[in-house]
Amino acid sequence: MKVPKIPDVELAFTFARSSGPGGQNVNKTNSKAILAWNIMSSKSISEAAKARFVEAYGNKINDIGEVIIASDETRDRMQNEARCVEKLMEMIQATWLPPKTRHATKPTKASQRRRVEGKKIRSDVKAGRGRVKSWQ
Predict the structure, then answer these.
(1) Residue 109, SS3?
(2) What is the pLDDT along the chain (136 residues), one digit of tens a residue?
(3) What is the spatial order of strands in the sheet that 32-38 belongs to?
(4) How far is CA 128 from the centre of its chain?
C-alpha cells in the first residue's frame, strides 16, 4: 500500500524568526517554518491510521487536533517548509501500516534440552563454590 499525499489545502504554514547563530540574517528574516495539520478533520488517511498516528505521536498534537512540526534547519524559508512536509510524511509512513501480529511458537525439544543442560552445568558450577564439608 502506498502512503497517501496530503493535499496542500490541509496544511497550514506559519513563519517565525529562527533561533541560534546566524547573525543579522536570523534577526531580520522569518525563515523558521511551522506546519500545522489537523489530523482529526483530515480525509486523507483512514481512521485506523489516525489512531496509530495519535498513539505514536500524541505529544506533537495540540488540544484542537493539529499536528505541529517546526523546522529551522536552513536559512531558506522554502527549504524549511519542504523539510516540515518531509518530516510529516516520515511520521505518516512510520504509522501507515498496522504492526504485524505475533504468532506464538513452541520451543523445539532440542532447544528445551539445551536450556536444561545449560542450567544443570551452571548449577554444578555454583554448587562447587560452597564450603568443603570434609577432607575424607
Answers:
(1) helix
(2) 677 788 888 899 989 887 766 666 666 778 889 999 999 888 888 899 999 999 999 888 999 989 999 998 888 889 999 999 999 999 999 888 888 899 999 999 999 999 999 999 999 999 889 887 776 6
(3) 11-16, 32-38, 66-71
(4) 49
Q: Look up residue 49 and give its three cell numbers.
A: 491510521
For the entire predicted model, the pTM comes to: 0.68
E strands present in the chain: 11-16, 32-38, 66-71
Strand-pairing partners, residue 69, are: 35
Say how far apart CA 28 and CA 37 lie, in whole Å: 27
Domains and CATH numbers, the chain: 8-96 (3.30.160.20)
Task: Write the CA distances from 35 to 17, 60, 95, 96, integer angstroms.
Answer: 14, 11, 19, 20
